Amino acid sequence: MSFHLPPPDTGALAARLLAWYDRHRRHLPWRMPPGVRSDPYLVWVSEVMLQQVRVETVARYYGPFVERWPTVGALAAAPLEEVLRAWSGLGRYARAHNLHASARLVVERHGGRVPEDEAALLALPGVGPYTAAAILAIGFGRGGSAVPVDGNIERVVARLFALGWDTGSPASRRRAELRRLAASLAPQARPGDHAQALMDLGATICIPNGRPRCGACPVADACAARAAGVAETLALGPKRAPKPKRFAAAFWVSRPRDGAVLMRRRPARGLLGGTLEPPSTEWRPGRAWRMAEAVSSGAAPVGAAWRRLRGRVRHALSDFEVEFAVMAAADPRRLPGAGEDGAVWVPREALEGEALSTMSRKLVRHALAAEGRGGQRGAAAAVPPGRSRSAAPPTSARNASSRLAPETPQTSPRSSNAARQPNSASAHSTLPATGTAPDGTAAAAPLSGRAMGMA
Ligand code: SF4
Predict the structure, then answer these.
(1) Cα angle vertex 134, ends 272, 100, to 5°?
(2) By the 8 A CB rule, do 425 and 418 touch?
(3) Ligand 1 center to residue 416 CA distance, Å?
(4) Rounded to an integer, what distance in angstroms lies between the CA atom of residue 438 and that of residue 451?
(5) 18 three-state secondary structure
(6) Which of 72, 93, 286, 336 sits CB 3.0–4.6 Å from 340 for a disulfide?
(7) How far is the CA of 143 from the centre of ligand 1 (A)?
């Protein structure tokens, strides 16, 4: 739906927006003062980190990252493993792979200087039209067609021009129209600040979910949605379908002699590529794993007496949500050596600095919290040692399920992390056991010092 109102005076609108930005901008670690161009490499790093991650989370990662690798050349020279470690907890690890690979290409093809050319930027892995436009506008001060349009800017522009979501029109056409309208607003002077002003307006004033703060908006009198009385009701996109759910069981194995934790590394490419995680069963749709079934599936990494930890761990990935039950090994037998069957033993004190995804951190915190409580009262050690590798559930294991503690999912409010781009929000939550401290919901919350100590 659109309302055919006179187009705004774009020059006056841009001037007011820049004046507002000068006074009310967000102070973010990757930002330069108004009127000062940023280093294109730093813009690139920040924009890649910000994809679908909250600004507050990125603010914690950005400084240490660019301090360690202040130039493209430094990043290109770094081992991928170290980059992944520094990325640990930011999620979507393909971004770190691509950033690192792109840095090497920039060194090879462009002498280590970020190219000031859209086609050359788009040829780099992981650099799409938005990131290329942000680098050109904010890092090089380029105007014209280099207008970055993220979710915040889409929303602001849609409201300014009262361009509502039309179910009969392809999303790609609407997006192209929003880009065209955004470009029509961009001034020749300070195009980078203008883009960041629109981002900030969308993040702080023209906010989503039908709650724009029009009374505080610097461009309210040029806004078509407000003039038409639809600022709060204008449809901005299709209703999002809930993510499909998968279920898994993770296995927590702590080496008795030193407390090191058994992990596996995921394949370098693909989902959570290259990160470490506790071994787990298949992530299947449909139904949760019962303990005896999980242990006897062949996925348990060692023979042990297993017990199911109370509570479950949930994590939302881009395309689905996964819910884990966590099984802890008591008296593990025949522990694999490092590298054997993909085993990686991580000392407790090294867990914090390892390349663990946010999902793995949740699992680790969940298990450490259980250890800190001195075991899971009521969660019976139901499957005896020696059963974990059998292909089919032996009778004793099947019978063991009747001795398990109830596996009724706990319920608790979910904590949601609104992503920077509203169409791709990510959410993280953990369902704690009754009486258990929540395992933390911030995407990059550190593993607590207490929990990191030896149990
Ligand atoms: S007037 Fe309201 S709806 Fe329009 S741009 Fe400003 S905050 Fe958004």
Answers:
(1) 35
(2) yes
(3) 25
(4) 13
(5) helix
(6) 336
(7) 24
Does ligand 1 come within 6 angstroms of the Cβ of 185?
no
Whether residue 159 has its Cβ less than 6 Å from ligand 1: yes
d(CA 22, CA 303): 63
The CA 222 to ligand 1 mean position distance, Å, reads 9
Closest ligand 1 atom to Cα of 155: 8
pLDDT in tens, 35-70: 999 999 999 999 999 998 899 999 999 999 999 999
Specify the residue with its C-alpha closest to ligand 1, atom 8: 206
Please report where in the chains the tokens 């002498």 appear, as a residue: 111
- Ligand 1 atom nearest the C-alpha of 232 is 3
Residues 135, 121: Cα–Cα separation, whole Å: 9
216 CA from centroid of ligand 1 (Å): 9
Is the CB of residue 223 below 6 angstroms from any atom belonging to ligand 1?
A: yes
- Closest CA relative to residue 322, chosen from 372, 355, 278: 278
* Chain center to CA of 338: 30
- The CA-CA-CA angle for residues 143, 145, 146, to 5°, reads 60
Active site residue 118: no
pLDDT tens series, the chain, 455 aa: 554 555 567 788 999 999 999 999 999 999 999 999 999 999 999 999 999 889 999 999 999 999 999 999 999 999 999 999 999 888 888 899 999 999 999 999 999 999 999 999 999 999 999 999 999 999 999 977 778 999 999 999 999 999 988 777 778 888 889 999 999 998 888 999 999 999 999 999 999 988 899 999 999 999 999 999 999 999 888 777 889 999 999 999 999 999 999 999 998 888 888 889 999 999 999 999 999 999 999 999 999 999 999 999 999 988 899 999 999 999 888 888 888 888 999 999 998 888 888 899 999 999 999 988 764 433 433 444 433 333 232 323 333 222 222 222 222 222 223 333 323 323 222 332 222 222 222 223 345 333 332 22
What pTM did the predictor assign? 0.69
Q: Which of 205, 207, 209, 211 to mutate to test the pocket of ligand 1 (most atoms within 8 A of CB)?
A: 205
In this structure, the residue with its CA closest to atom 4 of ligand 1 is: 223
Domains of the chain (ranges, CATH numbers): 10-17+144-189+199-238 (1.10.1670.10), 38-140 (1.10.340.30), 245-452 (3.90.79.10)
d(CA 200, ligand 1 centre) in Å: 12
The answer, yes or no, to whether any atom of ligand 1 lies below 6 A from the CB of 219, is yes
